[in-house]
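Sequence, structure tokens reproduced for absentees:
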Amino acid sequence: MTTTDIPVTPARRGGATGPKRPGRPGGRRREGAAWVFLSPWVLGASVLTLLPMAVSLYLSFTDYDMFNAPSWVGLRNYTQMFTEDPRYWRSVGATLRYVVIAVPLQLAVALAVAMALKSMRRGRAFYRSAFYAPSLLGASMSIALVWRAIFNDGGTVDNLLGTGGWVNRPEWALFAVALLTVWQFGAPMVIFLAGLQQIPGELYEAASVDGASRWRQFLSITLPMLSPVVFFNLVLQTIQAFQVFTPAFAVSAGKGGPADSTLFYTLYLYDRGFVASHMGYASAMAWVLLLAIGAVTAVLFRTSRSWVFYADEEGR
């Protein structure tokens, strides 16, 4: 038999040499494997986040003391919160004052230290780790108690300045808590430092040739080029500031004093839910806080269009 006698099957168009297989069993297997790997996160998010949120939303419309079955009261918790509870509004005011004072100060200190570290030639890694350490320790109750001792009557601040203990004076207690937050500037500092290292050095060289001072370079180059990082840190630190609890609890011994000057929102929520056993009322407060943080974050994103500069938008 010669090669010309061998029957030849014509090839299919597109390079296929056999019958077309229905479906994509390989793709389905990969999708199934992906869901298997995602299942711990899905289970954790459902059981530890979504389910508690649903229960909390239900409890916000009930009268529940954690010992008896919840009874439906509708919107009574919300109306009582907004119209009958003066301490609620004092907690809102204290929290807003804290956010306005602590967040800008913390970001300013973090940016200043990051710029100082960027210009260092030796020891940058050591100082970066040293300045970051308070961010790991500052949220602990032990550090908050030490902070209270420093600002208490007869403490370090009283001995140095002779102003008396800050934590016992209504006009200064909130500043003591805010300074503890400013002291924890390590996390935004590291992010600022990473952003500063991405700014091209040629921009500063050209500005120096044109005779621009360091302050002008900071305003015209550093801040615009760093604005996405500033915005990122601003959003994160604002959200965290609205949820501050441990420093206020330690400094005021859980009472929010003196004269409710450190009665932050989460501290009052804790008082209503776990001290007074009004868990339904506390759940309503938690949902109002969630909506408030969402609204503030939306405002920050909306206003960012006028001051945040992205390099990829330059040619648009």
Q: What stands out?
A: The chain has one domain: 85-313. Residues 25-59 form the longest helix (35 residues).
